[in-house]
Amino acid sequence: MKEIMDVKLTARTAEPDMHKTGVLAIGLFSNAKGPDKLVKQLDRKLEGAIGRLIKIGDFKGKEGTGAVVYGDGRIGAKRVLLVGLGEKKKATLDTLRKAAAYAAKKSVEMKAKTLGLALHSAFGAKFDQAAMGQACAEGACFGSYRYDEFITENGNGRPASIKVDLIDSYDARTKELKAGVLRGAIVGRSQNYARTIANRPANVIYPETLAAEARKLARGSSALKCTVFNEKQMIEKGMGGVLAVGSGSEHRPRFIILKYTPPGGRTGAQPKIALVGKAITFDSGGISIKSANGMEEMKFDKTGGISVLATMKSIAELKLPVGVYGMIPSAENVPSGTSYRPGDIITTYSGKTVEIQNTDAEGRMILCDGLNYAVKQKCETVIDIATLTGSCLVALGRYMAGLMGNDEKLIKQLRKASEQSGEKVWPLPSGEEYAKEMKSKIADLKNTGSRYGGACTAAAFLGQFVGEAKWAHLDIAGVDMFQKATEFSAEGSTGFGVRLLTAYLTNLATDEN
User: Which of 175, 345, 403, 496 gets the highest tally of CB atoms within 10 A of its CB?
Assistant: First the structure.
């Protein structure tokens, strides 16, 4: 397989007009009263080319738009890319992140090997310099990403790597920006790692190979330890939910556990936080088979588990001072003579029984074992992430994830991390009224509720397995992938959750220290 494009990131002190690069990206707001100092400086060197472009209306500063002016030897850059930032009063760190993603995407399309980012200049002192450096690095990673491992011909001529320099005229600012770039590079590359694993098809990534990927990750880090339960071990432990979902496939299920111990931490100390990710490596719906239309996208049903995998990579490289479990129950949900069936009653790891009404409601069946396993490891806080319900997509569209749980403080912490990371969430209810819908007449629970409020009833079902732990559920159906390219990204996996969960854990580590 071909290597995914490498993104090399740094921050350096340089005069933007003198910096030699294939593309120099600068930001402009749509409602700015006039060009800022940097734009004026460049426009003088370019003999008014930027001003003329704006005057005739070819560039208006709208977010997600841009225009190119050629350097023609008058400045160090071969091209100046004007990037729209939208209205200044609405600007957030995610505005900057998206602008960097736009610039990186356009640079790759222009086959540029180097990109200079001076986007932060337009924001002045609005945000902390390190935070802006991190946002730019994350955005550059996100926008430059292409999934082309299986394209055997390099007909698009894209470079093997792109070098991205965040440039500023002052050493003091560069030092702060560089600290953020270093963090952003770790998070951005981890997110792209998640995107690559999620994009790989089901004949490449299935439970066993996903477990091998987790082991490989752990071998590369002294802070990570990987344990994998095979089918026999899960039978011994009574993990009936995972076993039932995986019963129809020749690719047998796995239960993957990654344990992160901070540098200097006690190796035997048990983490108090668990991330649990749904990893259905392919979801046909099982006996309750899905429509063939769009079924190729069901390789993305492993996104939650992959996000947990990549988050563990991120926090290990960041060396966060907080212990974390990453738990990834994994199965392939396909029909065969050995598949679990509607009407079956499954005994889960918790001991609770579940009546199966629809085998396509499989995610909650593997998550309930994962959640209860986390509780039995004495984790005080448990967060699960899953492409769980089409209902969440209906409710929130492709713009944000559903957020539910039993602890208001935890919900607020995740919403704060959402604002910082740019990965949007929206709270939905999952209380007792929804839990009542999940009661069965012939078992403790059933795995589907009514046709209404499906995201809420699914979350309420999961809530029956967390005991007294503080728990939150992220339903990322709808935000797991781009069906087509956007202004900021190529099509395919988004790696949603890596930035969000890393930001949450970073905040937690900061608060505790």
Answer: 496
31-40, 206-215, 425-434: least confidently modelled range:
31-40
CA nearest neighbour of 62 among 97, 25, 88, 33: 88
Is 195 among the catalytic positions? no
d(CA 313, CA 497): 13
Paired with 401 in beta bridges are 425
Share of the chain above pLDDT 70, in %: 98
Query: In this structure, are residues 312 and 497 in contact, taking their beta carbons and an 8 Å threshold?
Result: no
Catalytic entry in 290, 341, 415, 424 = 290
Q: Which of 189, 364, 470, 499 is catalytic?
A: 364
Question: What are the strands of the beta sheet with 345-347, ordered from one edge?
Answer: 345-347, 353-355, 445-446
Residue 83: HSE in the Cβ half-sphere, 13 Å Cα cutoff: 31
Rounded to 5 degrees, what are φ and ψ at 138?
Answer: -60, -45
pTM for the predicted model, two decimal places: 0.97
Q: Can you list the domains of the chain with their CATH numbers?
A: 6-188 (3.40.220.10), 200-230+248-340+361-435+453-512 (3.40.630.10)
Residue 410 above 90 pLDDT?
A: yes
- Which pLDDT tens digit goes with each residue over 82-104? 999 999 999 999 999 999 999 99
Alpha carbons 109 and 362: distance in angstroms, whole number? 40
Q: How far is CA 285 from CA 334, 388, 393, 433, in A?
A: 7, 12, 17, 27
Give backbone dihedrals phi and psi of 410, rounded to 5 degrees, phi first: -65, -40
- Which among 162, 139, 21, 131 is positioned nearest to 85, based on CA atoms? 139
Task: Specify the range with the lowest mean pLDDT, choosing from 217-226, 398-407, 460-469, 503-512.
Answer: 503-512
Query: What distances in angstroms separate CA 80 from CA 77, 101, 124, 148, one per listed residue?
Result: 7, 16, 20, 28
Report the candidate in 187, 222, 255, 200 with the shortest Cα–Cα distance to residue 417: 187
